[in-house]
Amino acid sequence: MDVLLKHSVRPEDAQKEKQFHLRFLMSPAEVVYSGGQSVRFQTNVLEGLPESARAVSTNNCVDVPCAMALRSVGYASLALCGVPFDNVRRIVPNIAGRVVHNGDAVRGMYVAGWLKRGPVGVIATTMQDAYRTADALVMDLESGAISNPLASSTSSSSSTSLIDAMLAQTRVAKTRVSYDDWLRIDAHEIAVGVAHNKPREKLTSVNEMLDVIGCSKDQ
Predict the structure, then answer these.
(1) CB 127: neighbour CB atoms within 10 A?
(2) Dist. CA 205–CA 192, nearest whole Å
């Protein structure tokens, strides 16, 4: 928003031939071809608390003339076994990152990113959102609302050992990716990219990445 506001008051930008306008709280409903091409939008209003507000249709429509309409790729989060999930909004219900079920916080369970708020925002939005969830987690640790399994650790190495021991008891034990593993994936992508005159060739599946570091998701 700071960037948009900055350019909105620059006189030289106001003289440009092409302009763009941002219109919020509108959902595309259909393309209308009669009387010239346009896109029909339903107008929305926000309902609920700021942290959990959602757009609700007013059942009013507005037609916006257009010469070209672009359809973006959709995204919907998937439910996780044992985790509360809103099948309508496709998110894990939460308050400030704390997962809730039937209005009550689920002790020790937190969520961030699109699973927390839906597929909106940019990378910086997701980063700041994750900070707020981390703040909530730290606040709960400090208040004693949740227990700290590393509280008795006296060094970073012993803390790491405890984390390793905890992860070893979970189903991610065989498919963990360490920083050294990531470096191997990074080097592989760059090497394959160079062979094709590209900066890198991204691996696009988890199994491909695990194959590079020598472990299989099916182990």
Answers:
(1) 12
(2) 15
